[in-house]
Amino acid sequence: KLNPKYAYAYYYRGLSNYILKDYSNSSAPTVEDFSNFIALDSSLASAYYYRGMISRNWGYRNHLDNYYDFTKAIKLDPNFAEAHFERGVEMFKVESLPNRESFSMDEISANYTKAIELKPNYPEAYFHRGIAKSNIFKKDYTGAIEDYTKAIELNRNFVDAYYNRGNTYYRIRKNKEACLDLKKTAELGKPYVYDLIKEYCK
Asked: Which of 176, 88, 192 is nearest to 130 (CA)?
């Protein structure tokens, strides 16, 4: 039986292992620690957030469970920018929900937009919103390029943002811009783009 006196002992042990990325330590099962804390105190947004993060990064549960954890964190703290962002990431990964086919790209993007509203200097949120905008169902390539560009402004070494922006430029036949971004991607240590450089930079 869980002892309420030890609620924060579970929380801080889980948090310590999360920071150390020691998620598989059998003497300190991190997901279980946060679950035990939540069973004793369900009012702390960060407990749901960390449980969702650990579960997602280490594959302990499915994406839908993680989505619900981030949603609960947002309900407890509507200004939790990282929870909005991570919920968007999970929504992108969830294949289906009860009684519906899937999340729309607009629903997913709304999470990134909210995260940006709460934390304007959030390059990952711009990057993932760019991915949602360039999705086959949206095809908002101009909007995606704007988001990738903002992500790069905030993090000049954001290699995936250069790569995605380069591919998006290529989709709208801006081969010169695509070439420059792919060369920057290679410069930042991603040699797998050399074949694309040969194609785009003729």
From this structure: 88
